[in-house]
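Intended use. Records like the one below are meant for learning the mapping from a protein sequence to its folded structure. Do not use them to infer anything beyond what is encoded.
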Amino acid sequence: MEFNALYNFITTELRELTTAFLTTNRSINIIEVLVLVVFLIFLYRRFIHGTNSENLVRGVFALVAMWFLSEILIKFNLTIFGVFLKTMVTVVTFGLIVIFQPELRKFLGYIGQGNIIRRIFFAQPNNREKGKKADVAKELIETVKYLSKFKIGGLSVILPNIAASNFS
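Structure written out for the chain above:
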């Protein structure tokens, strides 16, 4: 593809995008995007932030970005690269569906419950985890005292925080 053809293609696409943006009601579009962003941030902080699912969500965003990149490559007549990337995204997506089928089933069951809106927006965060952590620390301290008192050696293994599923 020659530089002039690429330049003409990019300027034509930018003109069409600008025309489409200017002919619509921009304030409503901006408000819609802001509401959607705030809602997604709320869901992310409520259910995903600080859990093992965070890396999975990042991976899904990477797949979406690769899909957009494949569409751009196809638009620039780099069909082989674009189709290859799009095929890889499709294969990985189906693989994820197969691998995470039990979790997807649990999630779909969770959102199928009747009181989902109340649970998402109005339920208080679960304080059971804090109590469990305090109990574990107390038990560990008592165990170390016992071992020290009777001069017994011991080996303690403390695993990193493995967050329980938020959908239970």
